[in-house]
Amino acid sequence: MKYLLIFLIFLATAVLGIYFFRDPAPKVFHADFVGSEVCGDCHWINYDAWKISPHHNIARLPEQGSVVGDFSSGSYFFPQQDPEFDEPAAKMYERGGEFFMAIQDIGGESYSEFKINKVIGYQYRQTYLTQEKGGVLRRLPIQWSVPRQAFFAYWNEQEQSPQSVHDLWEQMKPLNSAWNLYCARCHTTNLQENYKNNTHTIAQVEWTEIGVGCEVCHGPGSEHVNYMNGHPVNRLVSWFDQNLFNKTAPFIINAANQEQGFALSVCARCHGADIFRKRQPLYRNYKPGFNANGELNDLSPYFDEAPLVPGRKHPTVEVWPDGRPKGLGTLFRSFADSSHYQVTDMRCYTCHDPHNNKKAAATGLLRPTVQSNAFCLGCHEVIAENLSAHTNHKAGRPGAYCYDCHMPKNILNAVAGVTHFVRSHNMGSIPNPLLSKKLGIENSPNACHECHQDKTQEWAIEKLKSWGMDGHLIDTDLHLQRNAKSDILHPIN
Ligand code: HEC
Ligand code: HEC
Ligand code: HEC
Ligand code: HEC
Ligand code: HEC
Ligand code: HEC
Ligand code: HEC
Ligand code: HEC
């Protein structure tokens, strides 16, 4: 008994000793980027999940496994060309393990060959980059559409402009086809704009890791690694701090331990393209963590700054004529406008796994399922009490899940050369067939019509009335104005 007591006292002293002998960790510090491989040494579970994720694989070197376009005998013809008689506008091929795209020269039969140095994307579309002499990585004008399984002139289709060899060459000149200047900020880690002598050449934009690495979301990690690596006491104590006392680990940022505005800034920096030009520098140079004054870098004051004017040209074109977010660049905005941002503590990674970003944070959460209903009903208990009275659809069938009506597919993802709508992230979007009737379904879609395409708007209006669920059938200008912000501004009864 006595020995046990002595042993326990010894143990307690040792633990306390260790606890107080760890190195101190100030909040304000300067760290550098070390790269995801280094993080993987200790955090191998998150590393393995991330390694197979689109975030990691978005930008790769051209290899058998990364090139999804047809480079065996690929070619691209303009719509006005006849493949039987004409020479293709572009040819794609492989030679000695390297990949090439050859674009027809203006006015001639000859071609100019470009070596592919990087491939971007693989899920919906693949973009090919070639390295120019000055160091600029140039986006080649012909890209691969995964759903079509064919090459296409991405920009011409986006702009609905006539296609010609001359135009393809024009697309090789502007700044917005220079990957360094335009794209890298959302597709790489640690963007550095080293404008020397104020020359602003695009080649001077650099990064240390291609793709979305660990430090994009957790901030530069050199100090964290120095603190942990080779310091077992620090490591042990940090582990106890985290797992027993729910404390933060030194010199690294975990969004989960921070306020919602900051936690969302981490994702908004790339998924919230809906920002004013004047805020671009802030978004471009964003680093998760504390600034020199010890305050967290927070973009939330700017989340909903740009008014959703129908037909808006900048920063992203697509806003529905009823004022709701439409373009993929406004997916984040649809969330920032929602009461689930304004009233609850919901975050992107509440539903999405941040490490393997293709996966749900919990099984079944990203699909209309029993689990996803349970997630919504966890807060909306009143509806849970009599579910079928609210949904008016047979339980377990389409139309009976919260996502079906409140996260309608009205965000346009046109990146792959096919029209594809993804779910609005305003979880409080409410079907309003009356407004669809007034503006036309093509200008103001609603969830009922997504599934009941053979029915008229009048039909849906009547059904909602007969269910006593017509509280949101409003088509006055006031409604339009309010809808431009969010459905929550209507009185909820
Ligand atoms: C504001 C940030 C931002 C900028 C700037 C940006 N992208 Fe993206 N890009 C994204 C995001 C976010 C996605 C994923 C969208 C989704 O799936 O919802 C994406 C997706 C893609 C995809 C499809 C990936 C796949 O697997 O199918 C390609 C290709 C792509 N971007 C290329 C480019 C190119 C080329 C540029 C420059 C001309 C560019 N991006 C500029 C944020 C950006
Ligand atoms: C797209 C942003 C993003 C990227 C990239 C990312 N993380 Fe995370 N990470 C998060 C978020 C958000 C959380 C909090 C998740 C939660 O608690 O639900 C987190 C949590 C963590 C945690 C603490 C909780 C846990 O799961 O152990 C560790 C450790 C971690 N990440 C390491 C990494 C490493 C290592 C990498 C790179 C291989 C990485 N992260 C890449 C966003 C990211
Ligand atoms: C030498 C080992 C080691 C390396 C390398 C390392 N970490 Fe950690 N990290 C730890 C330990 C130990 C903890 C605390 C216990 C835990 O969460 O597992 C921790 C905690 C974290 C947390 C949780 C922070 C919190 O407050 O909740 C994140 C996020 C994280 N590390 C990210 C990274 C990133 C990103 C890198 C690469 C830049 C990295 N780590 C490299 C050992 C390491
Ligand atoms: C540095 C820019 C960047 C940051 C920061 C970022 N993402 Fe992404 N995200 C991308 C790009 C680029 C893609 C496209 C990958 C692809 O499709 O190949 C993407 C894809 C995704 C996808 C999958 C889309 C699809 O259609 O497959 C989800 C979900 C996602 N991100 C969630 C998040 C969350 C949650 C956060 C914050 C914790 C976050 N992202 C932070 C750039 C970023
Ligand atoms: C309530 C859960 C929930 C939250 C919170 C959430 N999402 Fe989603 N997200 C979804 C669902 C559901 C889908 C559709 C998945 C599908 O159809 O496979 C989706 C799809 C996406 C996609 C893919 C779009 C595409 O091109 O197919 C991206 C990107 C995305 N979310 C980003 C975000 C970001 C950024 C945030 C934070 C602002 C966020 N999500 C918050 C549920 C959520
Ligand atoms: C078939 C379509 C449909 C489905 C499925 C559906 N809702 Fe609704 N919901 C509506 C309509 C329509 C309204 C507006 C009712 C009104 O204004 O009278 C509404 C209103 C609401 C409101 C606001 C209630 C109020 O106080 O006025 C909440 C909260 C809500 N729904 C949550 C949910 C949840 C949670 C689920 C999943 C269990 C769900 N809904 C499934 C159509 C649907
Ligand atoms: C963390 C709790 C929480 C979760 C989870 C949640 N909600 Fe809500 N929801 C709220 C709160 C709080 C409000 C706002 C009430 C207010 O403004 O008075 C709200 C409002 C709504 C409204 C009314 C319109 C609006 O935007 O205010 C609808 C519809 C709704 N939620 C649907 C959903 C759906 C669908 C899901 C699942 C994808 C969901 N909610 C998940 C808490 C939650
Ligand atoms: C995700 C798809 C989906 C959505 C969204 C949806 N429904 Fe349905 N609805 C169905 C299906 C499928 C049926 C057929 C019954 C079944 O197979 O379970 C149905 C049946 C019905 C019926 C009964 C059959 C009939 O034709 O008279 C009515 C009425 C109805 N829906 C009205 C609506 C209204 C109004 C809305 C919008 C508030 C709506 N639905 C939204 C899928 C949907």
List the helices and strands and how they pair.
Layout: H1 2-21, H2 36-40, H3 44-51, H4 54-57, E1 59-60, E2 74-76, E3 90-95, E4 98-104, E5 111-115, E6 118-120, E7 125-131, E8 137-139, E9 142-145, E10 150-153, H5 154-159, H6 165-170, H7 179-182, H8 184-187, E11 188-189, E12 192-193, E13 205-206, E14 209-210, H9 214-218, H10 222-228, H11 232-245, H12 260-271, H13 280-284, H14 331-336, H15 339-342, H16 348-351, H17 370-377, H18 381-385, H19 387-391, H20 402-406, E15 409-413, E16 420-423, H21 433-439, H22 447-451, H23 457-466, H24 477-485
The structure holds heme C (8 copies).
Q: In words, what does this structure look like?
A:
The protein is of the alpha+beta class. The protein has a domain at 59-188. It has helices at residues 2-21, 36-40, 44-51, 54-57, 154-159, 165-170, 179-182, 184-187, 214-218, 222-228, 232-245, 260-271, 280-284, 331-336, 339-342, 348-351, 370-377, 381-385, 387-391, 402-406, 433-439, 447-451, 457-466, 477-485; strands at residues 59-60, 74-76, 90-95, 98-104, 111-115, 118-120, 125-131, 137-139, 142-145, 150-153, 188-189, 192-193, 205-206, 209-210, 409-413, 420-423. Strands 1, 6, 7, 8, 9 and 10 form a six-stranded antiparallel sheet that branches. A four-stranded antiparallel sheet has the order 2-3-4-5. Helix 21 (433-439) runs antiparallel to helix 23. Bound molecules: heme C (HEC) (8 copies). The site of one heme C (HEC) has 16 residues, from helix 20, helix 22 and helix 23. The site of one heme C has 19 residues, from helix 2, helix 3 and helix 9.
